[in-house]
Write a structure and sequence with these properties.
The structure is a single chain. This protein is mostly beta strands and about 180 residues long. It folds into 2 domains: about 90 residues, Beta Barrel (Elongation Factor Tu (Ef-tu), domain 3), CATH 2.40.30; about 60 residues, Roll (SH3 type barrels), CATH 2.30.30.240. It is about 10% helix and about 45% strand. The chain has 3 helices and 12 strands, in the order ββαβββαβαββββββ. The strands form 2 sheets. It has a 6-stranded antiparallel barrel. β1 and β2 form a beta hairpin. It is elongated and about 55 Å long.
């Protein structure tokens, strides 16, 4: 029996109120479906890597939009004290239960460990080791062959292509970005 692949759909940031609601940072374009009443999510650790041990399953009791985040009540969190223990944990969903991304989209977890190459020459730069959602937008952290890392903005003028099947990110970086 194979272990199902999981995708990050959110991250618990902090408790909200005293009845177990939590503020969830969204890592999905479909929060209404992911956090619909009765939906199941799996709670991991504070690391974005899926845990090797089984994750705890939780059901969404209710959720509401708060702009870039959502307030979510999970059945496994009865009060604020328990919500504090869940702070900064990632929420996952089995990939098989997610809609397939559109042709020009990629799941963020798919970026991890992809090779990064230059568009013009095809020269290898390194590999994606992390991604971050900043107020300015998404960035990826690329570890170069010498072990140093650079932060690359995930914007169309820099990231020209992401080939999920080939596990490759193709860049056209401006001068000095990779230095």
């Amino acid at each position: 029996m194979t272990t199902p692949a999981f995708a990050i759909v959110g991250r618990i940031r902090k408790p909200h109120g005293i009845r177990g609601e939590v503020v969830v940072e969204l890592v999905t374009d479909a929060p209404g479906a992911i956090f619909a009443s009765g939906a199941r999510v799996f709670v991991g650790t504070t690391s974005p890597e899926p845990p090797r041990s089984p994750m705890r399953e939780a059901r969404v009791e209710r959720a509401r939009d708060q702009g870039s985040s959502w307030l979510v009540k999970l059945d496994a969190i009865p009060d604020r004290n328990e919500a504090e223990r869940w702070r900064d944990r990632y929420l996952y969903m089995p990939e098989s239960e997610l809609p397939a991304p559109k042709d020009d989209e990629v799941y963020l977890h798919d970026l991890h460990d992809m090779s990064v190459v230059l568009a013009e020459s095809g020269d290898a730069i390194g590999r994606v080791v992390a991604w971050y959602e900043l107020p300015q937008g998404l960035v990826i952290e690329v570890e170069k062959a010498d072990g140093t890392t650079v932060i690359v903005p995930y914007i169309p003028t820099v990231v020209k292509e992401v080939d999920v099947d080939a596990r490759r990110v193709v860049l056209t970086p401006p001068d000095g970005l990779l230095d």
